Amino acid sequence: MATLDRLSVRNMLARLVKFSSGKGGRIVSSILDHCAEIEAEEARKRVVTAEEGNGRNPVGINDVQAVTGTKGGE
Q1: Can you tell me the distance from the alpha carbon of 34 to that of 2, in angstroms, rounded to the nearest whole number?
Q2: Is residue 19 part of a domain?
Q3: pLDDT tens digits along 16-67
């Protein structure tokens, strides 16, 4: 059995929302919202860890965007 990463699962759930209606669609949408909250919290933790580190910033630009809500250079 293949292992799915979080992004794959999230993409599958997003597709389900498009084809679901009623209560089922709202449940899947709620799951997606919760996944986004978890991802944002993990990104914040990575930023804090990088700031506490030895001056190097291992955080990728996508992680910074997730925390700040900005795109690179803004």
Answers
A1: 24
A2: yes
A3: 766 666 666 777 778 778 888 888 888 888 877 766 665 555 555 555 555 5
CA 11 to chain centroid: 11
Q: Which residue has the tokens 């993990």?
A: 42
Q: Residue by residue, what is the 3-state secondary structure of 15-35?
A: HHHHHCCCHHHHHHHHHHHHH
Residue 51: how many other CB atoms lie within 10 Å: 10
Domain count, the chain: 1
- 25 part of a folded domain: yes
pLDDT of 2 reads 54
Contacts of 21 (CB under 8 A, 6+ apart): none
Distance separating alpha carbons of residues 7 and 65, to the nearest angstrom: 17
The pLDDT value recorded for residue 14 is 74
At residue 45, what are phi and psi to the nearest 5 degrees?
Answer: -65, -40
